[in-house]
Design brief:
The chain is α/β, with parallel strands linked by helices. It has a domain of 190 residues: Rossmann fold (3-Layer(aba) Sandwich). It is 31% helix and 24% strand. It contains seven helices and nine strands; from the N terminus they run αββββαββαβαβαβαα. Strands 5-8-7-6-9 form a five-stranded mixed barrel.
């Protein structure tokens, strides 16, 4: 269990490294999407291993560092890589950076991920604004002693993904002529891809996309008052939707192909968050 002092120690180290910069938006970049962190202007990068109590990111292609600077003129803190449950981390450890970001003054978050399309009306390359999520496995990042400095013991989960931010993102996409989906993100623990039977279950329960991240960070953000916009990139059709087999290489290749539209949407949303 982390103490409030642990979070303060992490925030103080980051402050000592970023100087007068005051990030306002936290951007969490998922698998294959870390390239956007390299676009940050006036950037200062801090490796996770240098921050007290942070855990290193071991997932392939995750750089495992914070980048603080500006994107579209907005002061941002970018997580180039995240922690996952399948790496052996607890939900509390996965959500830890979000709470540290709150202490640094972050008020809004854009969380992204690579996901498998459960909805048969979706296609590889589609962007989906997350309207809600389903988590039927794994503990909550809020389990254990509550830290009232961040939020209440029992927090409301009605609007984890901020409806106003989602409307704004939809308007920006429409203005660019960029088609986007909206749907429910179904969390799986990984690291193995889901079975066709699991995907059929998820579809029956209302899931539109399957992934192995996001819900712990979003839950912690909701608890401590950070408004969240969630964006999923469909990098593959989920198991059983087609006859093909799944691989991590497929995910990264699809992310690379979608780089232009993904970047355009995120930057447009950031400009509206000024």
């Amino acid at each position: 269990m982390f103490t409030f002092q642990n979070y303060r120690e992490s925030a103080e180290l980051i402050r000592s490294r970023i100087g007068e910069r005051k990030p306002r938006v936290l951007l969490i970049l998922g698998s294959g999407l870390g390239f956007l962190g390299d676009e940050v202007e006036n950037a200062v990068a801090v490796d996770y291993r240098e921050i007290p109590h942070f855990r290193p990111s071991t997932a392939p292609d995750h750089k495992g560092r914070l980048v603080v600077g500006e994107l579209s003129g907005v002061p941002v803190m970018v997580m180039q890589g995240r922690m996952h449950y399948y790496e052996g981390y607890s939900p509390e450890e996965i959500a830890y950076p979000v709470r540290v970001a709150r202490l640094l003054g972050i008020e809004r978050m854009i969380v992204t991920n690579a996901a498998g399309a459960i909805n048969t009306g979706f296609s590889v390359g589609d962007l989906m604004l997350i309207s809600d999520h389903i988590r039927i496995m794994g503990e909550s990042p809020l389990r254990g002693e509550n830290l009232p400095e961040f939020g209440p013991r029992f927090c409301d989960m009605t609007a984890v993904y901020d409806p106003a931010l989602r409307r704004m993102a939809l308007e920006q996409a429409q203005a660019m002529g960029l088609p986007v989906r909206q749907g429910v993100y179904f969390y799986f623990a990984g690291p193995q891809f889901e079975t066709p039977a699991e995907i059929r279950m998820a579809r029956t329960l209302g899931g539109d996309a399957a992934g192995m991240s996001t819900v712990y960070e979003a839950t912690a953000a909701n608890h401590c008052g950070i408004r969240t916009l969630g964006i999923s990139l469909m990098t593959n059709m989920a198991a059983g939707v087609t006859e093909g087999r799944l691989s991590g290489e497929e995910v990264n290749a699809a992310a690379a192909r979608a780089q232009k539209q993904f970047t355009a949407l995120v930057l447009a949303c950031l400009r509206e968050m000024k």
